[in-house]
Design brief:
about 325 residues; mainly alpha; two-stranded antiparallel sheet; 15 helices; about 75% helix
């Protein structure tokens, strides 16, 4: 009986040894191929074509004429472009810096106070309410806000008049000194829900024992949050800052719906400037140069964010 088992084992061993080792990783490329083809068709080829057009002088009709770096040299001296880029930095503040700070505080309040004292269901409902502007189409949100901020019969001016603050009534989207800040306020409202959701997810993976030990040692809430909670959710902070900064640099829909870059270019941003140059002024090569520069800036920012995230993870 023992001899039979040993012979069977040897036979199985020989059969196994004759078979080549299976390499499941070789088949992974087949699953990546559709995504790679889609990335090539949707991202790489259009960007390559756009980059080529940026080196030409073309009105959108006829054959493009090669102009080399003429569009980029003109871009460096274009005050309208640099003004739109400065406005884009304001949008980074409104869509990245402010929502990140407010999102941290609101997430901590919902997680540490509302969730523990009123239940996780109430915290989830409030989280969904804050996230709702992210779900709304930007066209719908922009139209609603344009009604609210209308100078004559807008809800905001009507409310100010009703509570005795009629002197504060303004043409919120028509005043060149106020329009950019008004759009920034709307974008804070739109963007706040994304950091809140990400930070609440990060707080759920934070180790509660560290905060409990610090509380036993007499540390207050703020010290626990600053020295214990924030270092644990640092990867989420980098992700939010990178993602929201990219969204701010390429913002288009809100500017198009609310102000169309006006009044007098006060809210013009590079993406909308490229759009109007490309389609309205039919300076296709110059508009392509603007979008190419913006794409390169976004790619550089993405690489920096990924690098910071890798350092945090290591």
């Amino acid at each position: 009986m023992t001899v039979t088992v040993e012979r069977g084992a040897r036979a199985v061993g020989k059969g196994t040894a004759l078979r080549p080792p299976r390499r499941p990783r070789d088949s992974y490329a087949l699953f990546l191929l559709p995504g790679a083809l889609a990335f090539l068709a949707v991202i790489v080829l259009p960007f390559a074509m756009n980059t080529y057009v940026s080196f030409t002088d073309w009105q959108g009709v006829g054959s493009p004429e090669w102009s080399g770096l003429a569009n980029y040299r003109e871009l460096m001296d274009d005050t309208e472009f640099w003004a739109s880029f400065r406005h884009s930095l304001f949008m980074v503040v409104a869509m990245a810096a402010v929502p990140t700070a407010l999102g941290l505080l609101l997430a901590a309040a919902l997680f540490d106070h509302v969730g523990k004292h009123f239940g996780t269901r109430i915290a989830a409902v409030l989280r969904a309410c804050f996230y709702l502007p992210q779900v709304l189409p930007i066209a719908v949100a922009g139209i609603v806000w344009s009604w609210i901020l209308a100078p004559d019969n807008g809800s905001l001016n009507a409310l100010l008049k009703a509570i005795g603050l009629g002197s504060w009534q303004q043409d919120w989207l028509g005043d060149p000194d106020l329009a950019l800040y008004t759009v920034m306020g709307v974008m804070v409202w739109v963007q706040l829900g994304f950091p809140l959701v990400v930070f609440m997810a990060g707080l759920q993976r934070a180790d509660p024992q560290l905060a409990e030990a610090a509380e036993l040692d007499g540390a207050g809430w703020w010290r626990r949050f600053w020295h214990i909670t924030l270092p644990q959710i640092r990867p989420e902070i980098y992700v939010v800052l990178t993602w929201c900064s990219i969204a701010a640099l390429k913002v288009f829909g809100a500017v198009y719906v609310l102000t169309k870059g006006g009044p007098g270019g006060a809210t013009n941003v590079p993406s909308y400037f490229s759009f109007t140059t490309f389609f309205e002024k039919t300076q296709v090569g110059y508009g392509a140069a603007i979008s190419t520069v913006l794409t390169v800036i976004i790619l550089a920012l993405s690489l920096i964010g990924l690098r910071l995230q890798e350092r945090t993870g290591s």
